[in-house]
Specification:
two-stranded antiparallel sheet; globular; 12 strands; alpha/beta; ten-stranded parallel beta sheet; 337 residues
Length: 337
């Protein structure tokens, strides 16, 4: 059983718990205290959440060290710690081994390099979902579009869901991922949970986004799905709000269509950055793009985040335009896929 001095490790000093904890009675007492302290942080016993407030949490302040059992951890959540650079993150990641890890989530701002991330993934072949927020991986650490990730063979055999930037999706093109069925092109949207308005939460208008929006990278990500994403059944795309996507939607290359490329996308989801609705002039070009990309294939559902089209008449025109081609074969819904 591997245990760690987590608080010290976060500060760069790795230490192991003395072998005295091999005594079952001491271990049981220690487990009870750990469980009580983790409960105060609202953590699952199978999840680890690394974030800066934990360093000043009253419970942790009383402890010289906090231990956890790596062998049962299934989720790792990394949040922004402003005084950590990639060297520190590399030290933390290289000393962690979670043999049952299924979910890896990196929130906005940790600035973990792509090489540090890939080295960690190479040692964790059990990952089933990978979720990356905006700027969790600095764009400066991405290689040229013509290269691929240095991932070992079969390391992503269990991956089923990925939510990441267009650049990272494109870098997966030469890797066999047999069970990948759900892709979100675009980092996970930062939500503002203080707003409810009766229809759920809204995207945070203060969230950092890439400016200008990288439509070239989005094209490359779609090309990757066309060539390699034959197991993908759910695809979500994040676009810029307003009218910025209008020209791209109208001029989008037909050779990137997924409807006749052997893909099996049955559900398409559309979101916009920062909760900014699409301009009215973009609504019908979006409908035409969905028709060109998907409807001659297996598409059965179109999902829009509730802020994407706020005008009810424009939403009706959007649905009508698609139904002119699909009839009643396609269902429309509000919310994520």
């Amino acid at each position: 059983m591997c245990s760690f001095c987590l608080a010290q490790r976060l500060m760069g000093a790795v230490a192991f718990v003395p072998s005295a904890f091999s005594d079952p009675f001491a271990r049981a007492f220690q487990d009870e205290r750990i469980y009580n302290d983790l409960g105060g942080l609202h953590l699952s016993p199978c999840a680890v959440r690394i974030k800066s407030p934990m360093l000043s949490h009253p419970s942790f302040a009383k402890w010289t060290m906090v231990t956890f059992d790596e062998s049962v951890m299934t989720m790792l959540l990394i949040e922004h710690i402003p005084f950590f650079n990639d060297e520190k993150w590399c030290s933390i990641f290289s000393s962690l081994f979670l043999p049952r890890l299924e979910h890896l989530i990196i929130r906005q701002g940790p600035h973990i390099s792509l090489s540090t991330l890939t080295a960690f993934i190479n040692r964790h072949t059990t990952i089933q979902s990978l979720i990356l927020h905006h700027h969790s991986i600095p764009y400066s650490s991405y290689p040229s579009p013509n290269t691929t990730l240095s991932l070992s063979a079969n390391c992503l055999d269990q991956l089923k869901f990925v939510c990441a930037s267009s650049r990272l999706i494109h870098l997966l093109r030469s890797i066999l991922i047999p069970y990948l069925h759900h892709i979100n092109i675009g980092p996970e949207i930062q939500m503002d949970y203080r707003k409810f308005h009766g229809r759920g939460t809204y995207a945070d208008v203060r969230a950092k986004v890439e400016t200008p929006f990288d439509f070239v990278a989005l094209d490359r990500a779609l090309a990757t799905i066309k060539d390699c994403g034959h197991s993908v059944t759910k695809l979500a795309v994040t676009l810029p709000g307003g009218s910025k996507a209008k020209r791209w939607l109208k001029d989008h290359r037909l050779d990137l269509s997924l409807s006749s490329a052997g893909t099996h996308v049955r559900q398409i989801g559309i979101a916009t950055e920062r909760g900014i609705p699409l301009a009215t002039s973009v609504i019908l070009p979006l409908a035409d793009w969905i028709v060109r990309m998907f409807v001659t294939g297996n598409l059965r559902k179109v999902c829009l985040m509730h802020w994407v089209i706020v005008d009810l008449s424009a939403k009706a025109e959007f649905e009508k335009r698609i139904r002119e081609v699909t009839g009643d074969a396609v269902e429309f819904s509000i919310g994520p896929i």
